[in-house]
């Protein structure tokens, strides 16, 4: 038996079961069974496990630690070909995604368009012109002293 992670042992019969549910397509070995979050999955010891993690652990002969990822060099989520799978960290996986241009950064919403804003841009400008302590200004606008400090020092809402 091979341990996939600290909680799971994989019998060789499970590997045979996995290989029986795959087809060769375009250089990849595609899992045709159950898909969860786009990844091939199988029930093992009363728990759903990702097939690519099982395959990496089996073929490398070492368990995947909790912070290790089984990453696809082919970028096909349901591929279980051992030549396309590597054991890497989350940071490496994210860097690989960015290198390949697949990462999409969410739009940056600033100023009064941000959904958590309590004070308009005009009122922030007014606060910057006010005299008095930061605590007094904060009380006037019902915000924290740190928020007023950030406005005054152009850390947030710079204009």
3D structure, described in words:
With 159 residues, the protein is α+β, with helices and mostly antiparallel strands. The chain has two domains: 2-99, no CATH class; 111-152, no CATH class. Helices cover 34% and strands 23% of the residues. The strands form four sheets. The protein has a three-stranded antiparallel β-sheet. A hairpin with a 2-residue loop joins strand 6 and strand 7 (47-50). Helix 5 crosses helix 6 (145-152).
Helix and strand arrangement:
Layout: E1 2-5, E2 8-10, H1 12-20, E3 22-25, E4 28-31, E5 35-36, E6 39-44, E7 47-50, H2 51-60, E8 68-72, E9 85-89, H3 90-99, H4 121-129, H5 134-141, H6 145-152
Antiparallel strand pairs: 1-2, 3-4, 5-6, 6-7, 8-9
Helix pairs in contact: 5-6
Name the poorly predicted regions: none
The termini sit apart by 63 Å
Cα Rg: 26 Å
Biggest β-sheet: strands ordered side by side in the sheet: 5-6-7
Given the helix and strand composition, which structural class is it? alpha+beta
Summary, kept brief:
With 159 residues, this protein is α+β, with helices and mostly antiparallel strands. The protein is built from six helices and nine strands, in the order ββαβββββαββαααα.
Key traits:
single chain; 159 residues; 3-stranded antiparallel sheet; alpha+beta; two-stranded antiparallel sheet
């Amino acid at each position: 038996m091979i341990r996939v992670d600290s909680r799971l042992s994989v019998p060789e019969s499970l590997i045979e079961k996995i290989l029986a549910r795959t087809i060769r397509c375009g250089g990849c070995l595609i899992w045709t069974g159950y898909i969860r979050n786009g990844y091939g999955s199988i029930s093992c010891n009363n728990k759903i496990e990702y097939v690519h993690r099982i395959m990496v652990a089996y073929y490398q002969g070492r368990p995947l630690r909790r912070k290790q990822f089984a990453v696809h060099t082919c970028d096909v989520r349901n591929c279980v070909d051992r030549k396309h799978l590597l054991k890497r960290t989350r940071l490496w996986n994210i860097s690989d995604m960015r290198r390949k241009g697949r990462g999409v950064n969410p739009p940056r919403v600033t100023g009064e368009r941000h959904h958590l804003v309590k004070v308009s841009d005009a009122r922030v400008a007014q606060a910057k012109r006010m005299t008095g302590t930061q605590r007094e200004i904060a009380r006037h606008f019902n915000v924290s002293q740190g928020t007023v400090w950030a406005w005054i020092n152009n850390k947030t809402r710079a204009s």
